[in-house]
Fold this protein.
Amino acid sequence: MFLRFFLTFIIIFSITACSKKNDEVYKQLEKKNPYELYKEGLDAFEKRQYFFAEKKFSQAELIFDDVELAAKSSIMSSFSLYGINFYDQALNNLESYLKRYPLDKNIVYAHYLISIIYFEQITDEKKDLEPLLKAEKQINFFLKKYPNTDYAIDLRFKKDLIQNQLAAKELFVARYYISLQKWVPAINRLKNIINKYDKTVFVEEALHRLVEIHFHIGLEKEAESYAKILGYNYNSSKWFEQSYLILNKDYKIQKKEQFKKDNDGLLKKILKKII
């Protein structure tokens, strides 16, 4: 019983002590000019002294009466944390910003920065898919909510990169199953590429592998169907030629004509326009 009272006393004492300390810090900050703190933060930020900048922006946010300037200080604090690769702290800061300033004019930028932070944490998709999936989810959220912003152009490009990485992972696993002759899981992985990542460079090989597997297990009609899709969409692809060879052993790959570049002629044409 005594131990319980003692522990309760310690906890209450600690909370009270921390509260008093925070009050003292706040009182000291109140004596300072928030505009000066913000300027000090900005000067440090421009010199890439992000630790010092983050401290000043955080202090300025606490004592700014102007909500707009407080929100701006919060954003700059988050960006400073991002500048030193303190990703978790930056994300926590941004989440707090979104809760405190839901109507702020920089809210779109905050969501963009969150997307960038998740994207930059992507490492090796063969080892860990979680960062890829988190980045994809955040980018999809942004593109759905703010499709016509300037930031959306950059994030669409990053989304394409993510899609290619996810498709590469699926193909890597599919090849592994093929090497073990586990046809069903291999087919499922390959179909996943076609259905979910149809704009990536890995669709051609995925279709070819489906031709290869279905022909191998005696499902020639299915193999022909996939070959037709491959031929219709990628008739100049090396994967289509290989698929055709599987279905037609007598087929000979025709060499494409090599066109000699007439660089001199082209240069002369350009020169005439300049003259």
In short: Residues 5-22, 251-275 have pLDDT under 50 and may be disordered. The CA atoms of residues 94 and 110 lie 7 Å apart. The chain is about 75% helix and 0% strand.
